[in-house]
Amino acid sequence: MARLHGLVNAIRTSSDCHVAFLDTVRQGNASKLFQPPVPEVELLREVETRWDSAHGMLRTTIPARPAIEAMMIQKKYCEIRSKNLTDEQWTMAQKILDILDYPHLFQHLMTGEATPTLSSALPAFQCLQDRWEDHAGKHPDMAKHILGGMERLDKYHEKAGRMRAYVIALVLNPTIKLSFIRKHWSPIEQEMAEIWIKDEVSIVPPQRWWWLLPVVQSSF
Q1: What band does 211 get if pLDDT is binned at 50, 70 and 90?
Q2: Which among 36, 59, 93 is the end of a domain?
Q3: Going by C-beta distance under 8 Å and a sequence separation of 6 or more, which residues neighbour residue 194?
Q4: Does residue 190 form part of some domain?
Q5: What's the domain range around 21?
Q6: How many structural domains compose the chain?
Q7: Long-range contacts (CB closer than 8 Å, 24 or more residues apart) made by 118-124
Q8: b (16+ CB within 10 A) / e for 157-190
Q9: Is the distance from CB of 157 to CB of 129 less than 8 angstroms?
Q10: Angle of CA points 70, 24, 19, to nearest 5°
Q11: Quick one: 129 and 65 in the same domain?
Q12: Whether 119 and 210 share a structural domain
């Protein structure tokens, strides 16, 4: 990742290289030199303060490899040739991108503005965990990196599962109700969730909980 970061920085910080890269993309696509065509997009940098920036850098740079290497052939830009990645490093970058695709989708799911997303949080955590476990099984060489991410994910997942708001939103979602909890939680955790729901219903003023009864009753 550090070497890829250095390559992107070298292209982005030099105005000549930046323009030459975009020109190479356009000319290569027009002449059908690049198959498939290289996307005409800016190379994104990884920024420590941005959660998804590593994925953005990989997503924009890996498909641009043919254009980057075509630009490096030109004598004027040979100074950045030393910053290019080896075949093995490009392959590793693709593997990292495959791993980061899952949390990238998770983030987009949980930042939706059109519909409420709180009830999707716990299922999304579980889905991400399942996908990473499956990916680690299929790619043992990347298991170490995936397990590191899963350890951090488990901490957030556990904290979310202890918050009533997530559980209540989950159960009140008519497409989920208690099905997720009964499938993925232990009997003790299921009992705890049921107690939380009943407690919340019992403290809501009668004039406000009449609409909850069909949902809650059908959940148990």
Answers
A1: very low
A2: 93
A3: 178, 220
A4: yes
A5: 2-93
A6: 2
A7: 118/165, 118/166, 118/169, 119/169, 119/170, 119/172, 119/173, 119/176, 121/160, 121/166, 121/169, 121/170, 122/157, 122/160, 122/161, 122/166, 122/167, 122/170, 122/180, 123/170, 123/176, 123/180
A8: beebbeeeebbbbbbbbeebbbebbeebbeeeee
A9: yes
A10: 120
A11: no
A12: yes
Q: How does 26-42 read in b/e, with b if 16+ C-beta sit within 10 Å?
A: eebbeeeebeeebeeee
In a domain, 15, yes or no: yes
Q: How many CB atoms lie within 10 A of CB 50?
A: 12
Q: Which residue has 């940098």 as its token pair?
A: 45
The tokens describing 10, both together, are 């070298």
In a domain, 128, yes or no: yes
Cis amide bond preceding 36, omega within 30:
yes
Which of 104-118, 125-139, 143-157, 196-210 shows the lowest per-residue confidence on average (mean pLDDT)?
A: 196-210
- Do 128 and 169 belong to one domain? yes
| Token pair in block for residue 75 | 């004598």
Greater pLDDT, 178 or 62: 62
Residue 101 maps to a domain: no
Q: Please state the pTM of the whole predicted model.
A: 0.79
